[in-house]
Description:
Layout: E1 2-4, E2 16-20, E3 23-28, E4 33-34, E5 38-42, E6 49-51, E7 71-80, E8 83-91, E9 101-108, E10 119-122, E11 129-132, E12 138-145, E13 154-163, E14 168-169, E15 175-178, E16 187-194, E17 197-204, E18 212-218, E19 227-228, E20 235-236, E21 251-255, E22 261-267, E23 290-298, E24 304-306, E25 315-317, E26 333-335, E27 348-349, E28 358-361, E29 364-368, E30 380-385, E31 390-399, E32 406-413, E33 418-427, E34 432-441, E35 444-447, E36 454-455, E37 463-470, E38 473-479, E39 486-493, H1 499-503, E40 514-521, E41 528-538
Antiparallel strand pairs: 1-25, 2-3, 3-5, 4-27, 5-6, 7-8, 8-9, 9-10, 11-12, 12-13, 13-14, 13-15, 16-17, 17-18, 18-19, 18-20, 21-22, 22-23, 23-24, 26-41, 28-29, 29-41, 30-40, 31-37, 31-41, 32-33, 32-40, 33-34, 34-35, 34-36, 37-38, 38-39
Amino acid sequence: MQISNPVLPGFNADPSMIRVGDTYYIANSTFDWWPGVRLHESKDMVHWNLLPGPLNRVSQLDMKGNTSGGGIWAPDLSYADGKFWLIYTDVKIVNGAFKDCTNYLVTAEDIHGPWSEPIRINGVGFDSSLFHDDDGRKYLIQQTWDFREYHHAFNGITLTEFDTNTMHLKPETARIIWQGTDVKLVEGPHLYKINGWYYLFCAEGGTQYEHQESVARSRTLDAQSFEADPHNPFISNFDTPDTYLQKQGHGALVETPSGEWYYASLCGRPWRHETDPAHGVRGWCTLGRETAIQKVEWDEDGWPYVVGGHGGRRYVEAPVDAIETKAPADHSQHDEFEANELDINWNTLRVPFTEAMGHVGGGSLTLRGQGSLSNLFELSLIGRRWQAFDFDAETKVSFEPDNYMQMAGLTNFYNHLCWSWVFVTWDERRGKRVIEVAQNDFDTYTSFLKDRAIEVPDEAKAVWLRTKVRASSYTYEYSFDGEIWHGIPVTLDAAVLSDDYVASRYGGFFTGAFVGLAAVDLAGYGKEATFDHFDYREL
């Protein structure tokens, strides 16, 4: 078998990979999407299956009002003492001097849950991880955030002992163990003890095209005791602009039962417009930051290196002791909404799906109109990741709006600033339901059809809506019978839904594009829209 990277396509950033027995687990960041923390499992590192999200109660995670790109940053999954430990950070602010982040701990005896109520740990910095030493002591390792304008914001890696009797930190033990290299922006620490050495793996350089992972080691956990690997970066694509994978860095190391080593890291797969210069524009990552796995070996001096060079490989040898895992061939999804809860592939923003948003089951999804797609507090939207560059997605919606403030339809969505959708609404000039396409590009909202909005026949009980995404661009279509489809003459630039586009003007650029269903009622009457299926088909 071969590992084909990325192993977790679409928005699956900041992987924390561990092995328990013969099974590998990966935890990924979810930021402001619900449920909190994304989990996958595999026995071969090639095929991965999605697990239920561990943070599924508001008592564990309250993100209402969180700005886009805030929320869960870089969770850390570990296993010790017969249970799983999950450290996660809830970040409230993404722009400016402050992050207002809080780190929490939950545990579970079974990866499927139930997961405990959270223990509040601290707020020193984000990207926290828990290290279980071989002497039974435990330590929290974390990026240190310095808000003072006369200091560098990334103030090294802080280590603090964790007391398992009180289940709290010992603040008096806190010390900075490494300041990072001259690349700066040191974050995402994971600590390992191997052959008597403490190895510290950290991300540096930010999480765009200069991203990298660096390694340092020490015989002790004393302050400032770590020395950098002379061969850093351990993994990076800052100097390999033409490789298939880009942005590799932040991640975690794992040993197989037979003693092989692998490293899971985030990565990106940019595409370019035909007019983009190959090296002048590194590209647009509409699928967000994904997860790749590389094979690792050790040199004669005890330093780890990525097999094939620090640029990584698209195809990697699977572990020799891999146990073949059954998983879907791709990430296509067809949902008839028969179950009384949302399918595991669906996500909501900031809060769980509740009666305030609508209800599901019995063959339909009803969304109750709330705020606009730019609303950070009350939003009736469910979405799933783009996980392929080319796909079609469609739905059928029954909706009877009374005024133009009531809208329901199919959306391609990045965050509250950048999104578009095709939707049914009311045109008071014609006294008719109409279909419109609109886009929000930062602070510019555009209705593309205006006086050309497509009239919905009075006898039409429902409208079928479809989007066709083709890497660099996408379009919308409609049908009144589900068989004859009509293209809408609007072609949208997919780059607007990319990490790289959002990063040009906003600090929370960490997620990736979603496709989903939404209902809006700005008039405040909670007008309901009923969707009787959703189909996402990768090409």
